[in-house]
Specification:
GO terms for molecular function: lyase activity. This protein is an alpha+beta fold. The protein has 2 domains: 370 residues, Chondroitin AC/alginate lyase (Glycosyltransferase, Alpha/alpha barrel), CATH 1.50.10.100; 244 residues, Beta-galactosidase, Chain A, domain 5 (Distorted Sandwich), CATH 2.70.98. Helices cover 34% and strands 21% of the residues. The strands form 5 sheets. It has an 8-stranded antiparallel sheet with strand order 11-12-13-14-21-18-17-16, with no helix packed on it. It has a 5-stranded antiparallel sheet with strand order 3-4-5-7-8, with no helix packed on it. It has a 4-stranded antiparallel sheet with strand order 9-15-20-19, with no helix packed on it. The chain is globular. The protein starts with 8 loop residues before the first helix and ends in an 8-residue tail after the last strand. The model has no long low-confidence stretch (mean pLDDT 95).
Amino acid sequence: MKLTAFISAEDVAAHILGQDITGRLFPAWEDREAWGRMPEKLRQEWIRAAERHVGADLPTLRASAFMAYFTEGSRARYEAVDAARRSALCALLIAECLEGQGRFVGDIVDLVWLLCEQTTWCSPAHHYLSRDPAQILSNVAEPLFDLMAGETAAALAWTSFLLRGPLDRVSPLIRERIRLEIDRRIVAPYMERDDFWWMGFGEREPNNWNPWCNGNMLTVALLQEMAADQRAAVLSKILRSLDRYLEVQHEDGGCDEGSTYWARAAGMLLVNLELLYRASGGALQVYDQPLIQKLGQFVYRMYVGGPYFVNFADGSAMPSLDYGLIHLYGRRIKDDRLQALGQIGMASYRIPTEGMVSIFQEMISLAAYADIQTEGTLSPPLVQDCWLPHLQAMTARQQDGSVRGLYLAAKGGHNDESHNHNDIGHYVVYADGKPYLIDIGVETYTAKTFSPERYEIWTMQSEYHSLPVINGFGQKEGRAYRAREVAYERSDTTVRLGLDLAGAYPAEAGVKAWRRSFAFERAEGRDAAITLREQCTLAEPSRSVRLHMISCRRPTVAREGRILLSDGDGGALTIDYEPEQWGVAFERIEVVDEQLRRVWGDALYRIAFIAAGEVERGDWTFRITAADSEGEGGTA
């Protein structure tokens, strides 16, 4: 699909260029009636958040914080302060629009001036975009357009656009300064360079950076004052760049960056589409296109229930998703299940007070929160089955529309996905909506995360996923390392997935074939079971074959041939195996990273099944069932 096939230069000229879009995107500050209709609860929360920034000391960005990324590998010292500045501006701007009394304008001006004087808007982690990346400080003469630079530009553009009158009454130089800095730091490099990889004009495949950066560029192009021919040129390039993103999306809508990144992938694509839709008064839209719809639907197809999502790749099992965008996406494509997921998340919505805060998305959340109060409650989107053939990912639950019973998700694919982990054949299992066999996720990002040393990080390695270790070797990274002979089938009673893992391992592992098969038998109650079958052929006999399972529950031996994973609250999962074929060892993994501790607590467990004797050919089965805390209920 290409946007340019649906939105031409003539369409842009007719519906956007030369049009007064004031009020099309959001109400102007002067439209007090419109702002007065916003939800009172959120109005008060935003005002309280803004009041904390009134007269507060403005956060300082030091050169040493920028250099800390290169000298210590720390992203947080710089990025935390950078994000705090935008977060404060967002709170002050939205509160001023909601209240309309002018009492936050002075602090907004201070923050605008501070951001305009900031040496660079680019994160040090993205300094590799420079033509001289060896430097450990930013070159003010080479503005770089990364995610953070785009976010800062968009925040300033919204401030200038929404507070035109109040800022000009202080001084017209404020908005002129914003225009000059955005032109220099964002518009010029965007138009002069095609070598920012995220644009998609080179050999590297674009990922979520593309719609994210383009969404911020589109914000600037729509809100900033510029000549019609310049605006037309910028909009043309945005559409061409977005085409490159859409060209590499899977037809099934699967996001290889995982559900956690949905808000920064499909969600940011929605930001672009919605800006065009609103700016054109609804004339420019592609919400009826199948790919656009499937990209939106991916997020609920990965929804387990409660706070949990399938979290392959750099994802969290309990992600912080943008439910306002999810709700809007559902309304635009007329999908009740997507809209329902938005309702679920917005029910516990609280305004963000720190971290990544984007003004457009928060405005969308304001509107979504108001809309939901007048909507009927939709059924939770607990889909029974999902198979994404291009992504090679499947999910299945025991009961359609319910978290009761077993839930299985598994994947194939290759080991060069965006935000890749070496995880071909990996799977997760939940019971009654609770996690038992898990994907660990990713620790807090550091300099190492997106470097040649990425796979030195334990969470990226196949050895810390539920996968075989063969002759001491785990899987390797790279597109050549992929699943083979992938086959999926389903019926009302059974779901099956089979794939050969041998191609994911290096030649040194000596594996000719490793057929992993899942059979999910959807019987009633505790009779439901997931059977995992492993069939292998090795190049020569080996005494070093291990199978790992990763759990957030402490494993115990319920009886010979049965491992029990108890949730401590009456629920449990059992794993039945042939004890004469396997020795078993349990390893406790201390969780020190705060991002992982928030989800899993202070410990995880690696269950190691160690093959007894020599293996040249193997054929083993494991049976996974839900049970009570004593290990009863599952059938062996």
